[in-house]
Structures are given as C-alpha cells and as structure tokens.
Design brief:
The structure holds 2 protein chains of 2 kinds.
Chain A (H helix, E strand, L loop, with lengths): L1 E10 L2 E11 L4 E5 L6 H8 L7 E6 L2 E2 L4 H6 L1 E4 L11 H11 L4 H14 L15 H13 L5 E5 L7 H17 L2 E5 L3 H7 L2 E6 L2 E6 L1 H8 L6 H9 L10
Parallel strand pairs in A: 3-8, 3-9, 6-7, 7-8
Antiparallel strand pairs in A: 1-2, 1-4, 4-5, 9-10
Helix pairs in contact in A: 3-4, 3-5, 4-5
Chain B lengths: L17 H5 L5 H26 L1 H32 L3 H30 L2 H6 L6 H35 L3 H32 L4 H25 L8 H10 L9 H13 L5 H45 L12 H8 L6 H16 L1 H20 L7 H34 L3 H6 L4 H31 L3 H28 L8 H5 L2 H34 L6 H6 L2 H32 L3
Helix pairs in contact in B: 3-6, 4-6, 4-7, 4-10, 6-7, 6-11, 7-10, 7-11, 10-11, 12-13, 13-17, 14-15, 14-17, 15-17, 15-18, 15-20, 17-18, 18-20, 18-22, 20-22
The chains are: A alpha/beta, B mainly alpha.
C-alpha cells in the first residue's frame, strides 16, 4: 500500500530524511515515532504530496506521488496536526465538498456523510459554521472527512491532539476496525502509549534516519530489555547521549 | 541495521479497493463547478453573517462607498467638461496613463496575493492533498486574488468612465460595454502576475526574494521619478495649455500599441464616440468590439498559458517553498530598549517593560512598520511638494488644516488597524500577563503610551513640514501642532479604550478584530473626533482672514469675536477639552472593563 523507495529530502544543506526505504502492507497500522526535528513531518508531507522527495520515490497503492499525484490522492485520507476547515462552511457542507471532490456518487455520499456524522457524533453541530467549532470538534470533522471516500491509506499526523477521552476512544476503535477491513494506517505520534497499544509495527526516526523498524516486542528483544515500556525503550534509543543501536 | 523491511512492496490498487469503488477523478467541468459552488456558499455565508452581525459596518461601507463614488463622479464630470472644452486631445493620453499604471499595479498586487493564497494559506495545503487539478486550484485562487486586487479599480475607474460617457454624450452601448471591457482588461495583468509568481517560486527559489525586491524597487524608483519630474515642472503657469502639453508629453510612453492598456483606452474611446449618422455610430461600435475581442482573446490565451504552467510548476514550487528553512533570526536588545527599561523609577518599571515589549513586537513585524512607513512617506512626499503651487493666504491656511485632517485620518486607520486589536491579542497570552505582578491598568496604559508616543512624533513632524512648505505664520503652525498632539492623544485613547472595552479574545487575526463592530465604532468615532477638532480650530483662523480680506464690517457679533486672538485661545481651549474627553472617557470605560475581564 505504502512504499518509500530510497527517499531523501534535503532542506538546503540540511538532510531531513535520509535514504528512507520502507514498505507498509495492506491492513497494517504503522506508527512513526521520533523526537522533534527527526523528520517525521517531512516524511508525512512527502506521503501526502505536499513535499516532493529530493531523491527516491513515494508510492501509494502503486501510484507515484510526484508523477501521478491525483490518482494517488484518491487512495489517501489525511488528518493533519492542525485541522484546516472553511470558516464559512458548515460541517455538513464541508463533508459534501470533500465527497464531491472525490467524485463520490450522490447516493453513496449521502449515505456515508450520514454515517460519519453519526460515528463521530457530529450531528449536534453539523449545520453550524465551522468558525464556531472547538479544536476537538474540528479534529473530529476532519477525521470524518478523511474517511468519507473509504481510503486505502489513512495518514494521521498527531491525531489525538485536541480530542477528549471519548473521542479518543472512538478514533481508536475506528482505526482498529478499519485496519481489520484492510485499510493501512500511517500515524506519526508522540503518544507512545497509543503506539504501543495500537501499532502493528513502529518506526523510530532520529535525525532523518530510521533507527528502528519492527514490533515493540522486537524492539525489546533487540535492545535486550525485557520488562521496560516503549517509553523507556524510546528514550534509550533517541537520547542524544546514547549511541546505542538496537541489537547492540 | 537496515531500515528496509522484509515486507513486499505495495503493488497497484487491489481490485476490491474501497477507494476505487467510492471515488473517481472529476472531469474538468465538474471540478470547476465544484469550486464555483464552494465560492458561492462561502460568499452567501459571509453576506448573511454580515447582515446579521455587522450591520453597522456594512451600512458604513455601503454609505461611504456611495459617497466616494458620487464625489469622484462629480469631480470627473467637472474635469472632463474642462478637458473636453480646452484639451480634448489629452483624454486619450489621460486614459492611457491611468490604465497603464493600473496595469503595472495589478501585475504586482495579483502576483503578491497569489503568492499568499497559493503557497502560504492553509486552504492551499488542504487542496494539495485532494485529487484536484493543479490548474483548478490556481484558477480558484486566481479568481479570489483578482477580486481583491481589482475592486479598487472598479470603484475608482467606474465613476471616471461613466462621467466621461455622460460628458461626451455617448450612446448606451458605451455604458453596456464598460463592464466587459474592465473585466477583460483586468484578467490580462492579473494573469501575468500569476504566471510570474508561479515561475519565480518554482524556478527561482533562492533568487525569488531578491528578484522581487529589485523589480519592486525599480518600479517604485520609476514611479517616483515620473511623479517628481511631473510635479517639479509645476509652476505659476500650471493648468495652461502649454503646461498640459509639457506634462502629457512625459506620459506619452504609456501610449504603446502593444499594451493592453492602449487596447482598453482605444476601445473605450471608440465606444464612447457619438456618431453623427447611424453608419458612423455602427462603425465606432464595431471598432470598439474589435478592441474588446483583442482583450478577451489575449486574456484567454494567457489563462491557457497559466493553466499549463500550473500543471508543470505549482506542485514543484509548493514543494520548493515548503522545503525552505527559515533563517534563524537573532535579535539583541537595543540601546533604546535598555534605556527605556532602566531609565526611571522602580514603580513605573512594569509599565516600561510592557511598553518595551510592544515596541519590540512592532519593530519586528514588517507588516506593521512598512505600512506605517509607506503611508507617512507618501504624505511626506506630498507635503514636500505643496510648495510647488502658489497659494494665497486663505488657500494656504485651508490646505494646512486639510493636511492636518489627512494626517489625523491616516493615524486613525493605524490606531484602528493596529492599536485597537492589541488588547484582544493579549487575550491569548493572558495567562502570562495574568500571572505577572502587574496591575491590569498598567497593561492598558502601556498600550496608550505606545500608541501616543508612536504617533505624535511622525504626525507633528509631518504637520510641521506641511506648514513650512505652505509658508504659514508661526502662530498658525503652533495652533496646528497643538491640534496634532490633541489628535494623537484622543485617537490613542479611543482605540485603546474601546479595544479594552470590547475585546475579542477568541480571534487571533488583528485584521478580523479591527473589522468587527468595535473596530468600526472606533474608526467612526475617530473620524468624528478629527472633524470636530479641525473644524473648531479652523473656524477662528478663517474668520480672522475673512475679517482682513472683507473688512471688519462684514462679520459681526460672536463671529467677529471668534476671529480675534481671544477667539483663537477659546477655540484652542475647546480643542483641548475635546481631546481630554476623547482620551479620558474611552480610557475610563476600557480600564473599568479590563479590570473585570475574565478570559
């Protein structure tokens, strides 16, 4: 579903992402972890087509994000860290705009908009202008919009920011259900507990390079630490003082 | 460890893909229709919101625009009547000069607006992650940019062109063709601006800023040179036929047949020509249509070119720009800041610290001080040139007071735009200020001091320049300076006081805060205050001059007394009292409200 093929992205003299090769199959929930400035956001921006790689290629469902961005976007749903909505559209109008943009048939769009409004409990304020929404309400609406066209790949950048515990639960259940149905989820997060709870595999980026890729159990095994949490493993791996590599 | 996984690479979309079943790429017309519906919905929501929540602002905008349009129409009718009688041949030059300068401005303004809209807005980030065509996004943002960049042209150009048609006795077809001509003309420079913007962002990322700065600088130098050379030739023989010929010969450069501005002016002049016979009228009309067709064809060709460029360059440019690392900007505390912080009593130190914070924010925000510099710089240029005209005493005095009013009005736009939102913007940082051992009054007073001190020096300097250039007597200069100080105090009081009385703590955009009800009220009250001060101060001076010019017997009673020195002192006392009320009342209301504020 998702393929990074020797991807490098530079910002002037600085290399934000260095020779990243990564393939995430259908139905997997992948969590990308790393400290600030590690290259997570750059990776996500390349995955959704906002940035072009300096070298290498990014493909979603077989479509290259640089050569064929429109077809690739048909298969992607994206929830950014800062939700962007039209202030002067209601939540429902925004959902219709997204559905129309993805060319969804009328009857299907009607059905799915109603379903997502119910799923994310948006009904109470779906007909209010979104300028009056709180951050959590906006985030729920963006989640609903990103899932309308049943994307093959859902890209999430810090998805839980601004969500209340109930909404967090809704999102977690939804991610679990959708991945079972075959959707691939690529998530960047600082919430290690969520990654530990939900991710099939985690990737830990440090200074533009993928320092670890595998399951949390594999990480424990490779770092020869039996009982510690992902948080402790993460801190051990990303500490500036620690040059330790998994397996050492 | 190798970062490559053992999982097999993803292949093309599986046949059972949900996305494949639910979605498809839109055809071009459906995509255009979708963006059209989006704009229509947003415009409708904006109108209904304004009608329900901002009636005062809307009424003021409509009323002032109508007044502005009507005044311009009257002035242009007079001007065209004069030109038609004396210098009919210069109208073509006048149109060419006007439209060509407008063309240059539209290229720059649309380019700059598109840069912000296409590359820096959250909306463009959203659209770039959707399966929309690049040229459709360009077209969507282009229409928005054209609207914002050309409404001034419609407001300024329409009274001029309607007045010309009325004076010339043009047929109805001229008036019917005005809008198509203006719209088709605007598209050409606006598209050129868009093309330049996309090409520069995509292929000149490093040189973009330098290239833009050099081009803008060259355009400014050229415009200033043209204005200077034209104005410097103005002497006592101004407004004569020879002066007109000399002045317009300098503008002949604008009459280039390859300029769209020439096509527009020629087309309009043909359309406006009243034919003596039906055959002549038909010939003029068809000639005008040819120029319109030329404009439309070129506009469409440029749109095709821009669409092609958007497909090739938009995503590339967007990516290039997103990859730019903002330069680290280190700022050190200047001697002025240090002096202000350390020079004074310990009791007033919190006030001074808050003042220094606002000065630093202003100094580091280019959008604030650049506008301040541009407007006051242009005023300074105008005042420097008022000496070129020869006035008698009455005119010089009147112009001096009008200049004072202009300085006040410019300052009032700044106090409304930048000072009024200051308290509201503190709302987001209220937790910092709220936890400091600072009395809330200090926060409000620091804003007042910032506005007053920031306004009084440039304003008094400009008024002094204007008066010296007009050759006004010292007594009048002193009166103007006192009025200027009073205006600065009152305008600062109104903006800060009302800003504290009616804060909008949820809004983060200063422009939205200032365009709300409180900002509009602040602007209206500021304008009324300026009018009151200038009228009260100007009355004794003009009565004094009238008494001297017409003789003491013509003006009697109170009016006669007002024209004396005592009358002048009395009027100044009223001005100071007006200033005290305009400062104290809003500040009192603001301080009281701010003390009780619960963010």
């Amino acid at each position: 579903m998702i393929e990074f093929d020797h991807v490098t992205r530079t910002y002037g003299p600085k290399t934000a992402v260095s020779d990243l090769s990564l393939a995430i199959p259908r139905g997997e929930l992948f969590a990308l972890l790393g400290p600030n400035g590690a290259g997570k956001t750059t990776t996500i921006k390349m995955l959704v087509g906002l940035l072009q790689p300096s070298r290498g290629a990014v493909r979603v469902s077989g479509f290259d994000l640089v050569k064929d961005p429109r077809n690739a976007h048909l298969h992607i749903g994206y929830v950014p860290d800062e939700p962007c909505l039209y202030d002067k559209l209601t939540g429902r109008e925004f959902l219709w705009f997204i559905a129309d943009m993805f060319g969804m048939p009328r009857h299907l769009a009607t059905e799915r908009i109603a379903a997502e409004i119910e799923h994310f409990e948006l009904g109470e304020f779906a007909d209010d202008l979104s300028e009056s929404y709180s951050l959590g309400m906006k985030q729920r609406l963006v989640f609903a919009a990103s899932l309308l066209h049943a994307p093959d790949v859902l890209v999430l950048d810090e998805p839980m920011v601004g969500l209340d515990p109930r909404s967090v639960r809704i999102v977690k259940d939804l991610l679990a259900a959708r991945t079972r149905e075959g959707m691939t989820v690529f998530m960047s997060t600082h919430t290690l507990a969520m990654a530990e709870e939900m991710a099939d595999r985690v990737g830990i980026m440090v200074r533009g390079r993928l320092r670890f890729l595998g399951t949390v159990a594999e990480l424990r095994e490779q770092m020869a630490i039996e009982t510690t949490s992902l948080e402790q493993l993460y801190l051990e791996l990303t500490s500036p003082q620690s040059g330790r590599q998994p397996g050492e | 460890m190798s970062s490559r996984t053992t999982a097999s690479p993803a292949s093309a979309a599986p046949p059972h893909s949900l996305a494949a079943a639910c979605s498809r790429l839109l055809p071009v017309d459906a995509e255009s229709g979708l963006f059209f519906r989006l704009r229509a919905r947003i415009a409708w929501a904006l109108c209904t919101t304004m009608l329900s929540t901002a009636r005062l602002r809307l009424s003021l905008v409509v009323l002032l625009s109508a007044m502005f349009w009507g005044s311009l129409y009257g002035i242009f009718v007079e001007a065209f009547t004069f030109l038609e009688a004396l210098h009919a041949e210069v109208i073509s030059l006048l149109f060419n000069a006007f439209f060509s300068s407008l063309m240059v401005m539209l290229v720059f303004s649309t380019g700059i607006l598109l840069y912000g809209g296409m590359y820096c807005s959250p909306e463009s980030r959203l659209l770039m992650t959707l399966p929309a065509r690049e040229e459709a996004i360009f077209s969507h943002k282009f229409q928005e940019a054209v609207w914002f960049s050309s409404w001034g042209f419609i407001l300024l150009g329409s009274p001029m062109l309607v007045a010309y048609g009325v004076v010339r006795g043009s047929p109805w077809t001229y008036f019917a063709l005005l809008l198509p001509f203006m719209m088709s003309f605007v598209v050409i420079p606006a598209t050129v601006g868009g093309i330049c913007c996309m090409a520069m962002v995509a292929w000149l990322p490093k040189l973009r800023l330098h290239a833009l700065s050099i081009t803008l600088g060259a355009a400014c130098v050229g415009a200033i040179w043209l204005a200077w050379s034209t104005l410097s030739s103005v002497r006592a023989d101004s407004m004569s036929a020879a002066w007109f010929e000399q002045t317009f010969s300098r503008l002949a450069i604008t009459e280039q047949k390859l300029f769209p501005s020439w096509w527009l002016s020629s087309g309009l002049l043909e359309a406006a020509r009243p034919g003596a016979t039906a055959h002549e009228a038909w010939a003029a009309f068809t000639e005008a249509l040819k120029f319109l067709a030329l404009l439309v064809a070129n506009g469409m060709l440029l749109q095709l070119l821009a669409g092609w460029l958007a497909r090739r360059a938009y995503r590339l440019g967007f990516s290039q720009l997103a990859a730019e690392v903002p330069a680290r900007r280190r700022r050190r505390s200047g001697w002025f800041d240090e002096m202000l912080v350390n020079g004074g009593s310990a009791a007033s130190r919190p006030l001074r610290l808050l003042l220094v914070k606002d000065i630093r924010l202003f100094r580091r925000d280019i959008s604030q001080w650049s506008q301040f510099l541009i407007f006051f710089g242009l005023l300074g240029l105008y005042f420097w040139n008022v000496r070129s005209f020869n006035y008698n005493n009455a005119y010089a005095s009147m112009i001096g007071f009008l200049n004072l009013a202009v300085v006040g009005l410019i300052l009032s736009t700044f106090t409304t735009r930048f000072v009024f939102p200051m308290i509201s913007l503190e709302g987001r940082r209220f937790w910092i200020l709220g936890l400091l051992p600072v009395h809330r009054d200090h926060i409000v007073w620091s804003k007042f001091l910032f506005a007053f001190l920031g306004g009084v020096l440039p304003c008094c300097g400009l008024v002094l320049l204007s008066d010296v250039m007009l050759g006004l007597p010292r007594r009048t200069i002193l009166v103007h300076e006192i009025c200027c100080v009073v205006l600065c105090m009152g305008l600062s009081g109104i903006a800060v006081g009302l800003g504290a009385r009616m804060p909008d703590l949820r809004e983060v955009s200063p422009s939205k805060i200032s365009s709300g009800f409180g900002g509009t009220l602040s602007l209206v009250l500021s304008s009324l205050f300026i009018m009151a001060v200038v009228v009260v101060a100007a009355l004794p001076s003009h009565l004094f001059l009238a008494t001297h010019a017409l003789g003491p017997s013509t003006i009697r009673g109170v009016l006669s007394w007002l024209g004396t020195g005592q009358g002048l002192v009395a009027s100044l006392a009223v001005v100071v009292a007006l200033g005290a009320v305009a400062t104290a009342l809003p500040m009192w209301l603001g301080l009281r409200a701010f003390r009780r504020l619960e963010p």
